[in-house]
Structures are given as C-alpha cells and as structure tokens.
Amino acid sequence: MKTSLDTNILVTLWQGQPGALALTDLLLKLQLDGPMVVCAPVWVELCGLPGLRPSEVSRLLGELDVEVEFEIRQMVWERAATAYAAYTRRRREAGGGVPRRLMADFVIGAHGVTACHRLVTADSAFYRRCFPQLKVVPPPD
Fold first, then answer.
1. Residue-level pLDDT at 30
2. pLDDT recorded at residue 48
3. Which residues pair with 5 in a beta bridge?
4. How far is residue 124's CA from residue 40's CA, in Å, rounded to a whole number?
5. Which of 33, 52, 80, 107 gives 20 to 30 Å between its CA and that of 99?
6. Based on the structure, what is the number of domains in the chain?
7. CATH code at 73?
8. pTM strictly above 0.85
9. Mind spelling out the 3-state secondary structure of the chain?
10. Domain that holds residue 27
11. How crowded is residue 122: how many other Cβ atoms within 10 Å of its Cβ?
C-alpha cells in the first residue's frame, strides 16, 4: 500500500513542531504497509523552506526512505483540473471571490487518488472535500 505525504507533514517533522514525535510513530506504522512517496509539487514546496537546497531535500527524504515521484501522468493533471474547477466554481457561487488554494494542492490530491492508496496530511478537511474518494490520514492529535 503506497502512502503519499503532504508538504505539511514533512515540515512538521523537520522543524520539530508539536506532534512531530507522534507523527513519526504513525509514519513508521504506515511504512510497514508499503512505500512512502511525495509527488514533485511537494518536493518543490520543500525546496522553498529556509536553508534547504534541492540536494538537501532529497537527502532528507532519502533518510526517511521517502521516494520522490517526479513524473506525473496526464490522468493526475486531468483529475487536478477537474477538482480545481469545482473548487473555483464553489468559491464563486459562495461569493468567496478569487481562489485561495494553490494549484499544487490539487495536484497533490490528484496524485494521491491516482497513484497512491492514501495521503497523510494536516489539511484533511480540504482533501476530503475536493477528493472524496481519497483515503486521507490526518496526523495524530
């Protein structure tokens, strides 16, 4: 069972934020079921963290035995586009104005649905709403 990780999960771990220890335990348990991966947009977001170059991000992911899936199939882009269009329509209809979500969020969710079995994210409400068929695993409380 392949598990995808959202950017916020790795930031919590690497920055030692509250909950990092419990999150480490969760990831170790999930890793027993199969590989852990991130899609390319997560890797790019991680490279934007202060002081981290791409080589450092790749090294840190390697230490966690997390693979980066750089190739993103057309099916992922199509699913992301469909979810993004539905999101922007809901925002307009609710009078919420311009979208506040980044395109990367939709690619991460679509990758989770099409290429993985589940997504570990601290943003579970968003992913459940936009990708109801995605198995979302929130971090422990």
1. 96
2. 95
3. 120
4. 20
5. 52
6. 1
7. 3.40.50.1010
8. yes
9. CCEEECHHHHHHHHCCCCCHHHHHHHHHHHHCCCCEEEEHHHHHHHHCCCCCCHHHHHHHHHHCCEEEECCCCHHHHHHHHHHHHHHHHHHHHCCCCCCCCCHHHHHHHHHHHHHCCEEECCCHHHHHHHCCCCCEECCCC
10. 3-137
11. 17
